[in-house]
Design goal:
The chain is globular, with a radius of gyration of 17 Å. The longest helix is centred in the N-terminal third of the chain and has 7 residues, at 5-11. The N and C termini lie far apart (52 Å). With 177 residues, the protein is mainly beta. Residues 1-13 have low confidence and may be disordered. It has helices at 5-11, 141-146; strands spanning 29-31, 41-49, 60-65, 84-89, 95-101, 114-120, 127-133, 154-157, 160-161, 167-170, 173-174. β9 and β10 form a beta hairpin. The protein has one domain (16-174): Protocatechuate 3,4-Dioxygenase, subunit A (Sandwich), CATH 2.60.130.
């Protein structure tokens, strides 16, 4: 029996990808992980700027990550359809912020825990990268050497706990024309 193409793709485990751009009017502050999501609480904030350092209002910031165990989704672990994801548009000063949990590293790999970013603004080049955390022992020398390079896919960010024991991280983003 021959299955229609759509059913064939579904049977092979293909999933349609989540959108990569925030809708117009998306908020600048969101919660990605519900309060009952297992894991250590974390807040990431930053500012999107142009090459001249001027804040970009209305820039699209799409972020996605694994859960505390390093899994994107179940029953099929697929980064194209992550369960923990969010869409933001920067405020008038180019700021964004999201609350989440500290992601886990992929199971049985040497890949460090990370959060993916896709950032867009009209008239600027799309920026795709991931933040990794400075204290993560899986952030190896290869990543440390690549992170400072222009257009690197890695941004190494320090984490610090606030007075409520929530991890805090800052990730500013500069877009190019």
């Amino acid at each position: 029996m021959k299955l229609p193409l759509g059913l064939s793709l579904l049977a092979l485990g293909f999933a349609s990808q989540a959108p990569l751009i925030a809708e117009k009017g998306a908020p600048a502050r969101i919660a990605i992980a519900a309060a009952d999501e297992p894991g250590e609480r974390m807040i990431v904030a930053g500012q999107v700027m142009g090459p001249d350092g001027q804040p970009l209002s209305g820039a699209s910031v799409y972020v996605y990550q694994t859960d505390k165990d390093g899994i994107y989704s179940k029953p099929v672990n697929d980064s194209r359809t992550p369960r923990l994801r969010g869409y933001m548009r920067t405020d008038a000063l180019g700021r964004y912020e999201y609350s989440t949990i500290k992601p886990g590293a992929y199971p049985n790999t040497r890949n460090p825990a990370h959060i993916h970013y896709v950032v867009n603004a009209p008239g600027f080049k799309e920026r795709i990268f991931e933040i990794v955390f400075a204290e993560d022992p899986l952030v190896d020398q290869r990543i440390r050497d690549r992170a400072p390079q222009e257009d690197s896919v890695f941004s190494i960010r320090p984490l610090a706990r606030d007075s409520q024991r929530v991890w805090r991280c800052t990730q500013d983003i500069q877009l190019r024309r």
